[in-house]
Amino acid sequence: MDQDMAGMTGRVTGTVGPGLVGEVIIRIRGGAEHFLAYPALDERDPIPVGTVVTVVEHLPPRTVYVTAAYVG
Is residue 3, in this structure, part of any structural domain at all? Predict the structure, then answer.
């Protein structure tokens, strides 16, 4: 059974940004898995590698839309 991923956090492993297909790693199903990542609609700046992100939407099987979890 798939988990609802909205609200889960992960870490960027390949820069996420407008016009880019990035990558994030998310702890799920007792392990850690990589997903293709796109910025959520409100994200205009690139999200660099190492940034903690929150999943806004999941498109099965391996695509997520994310936003930076912390602003600062």
Answer: no
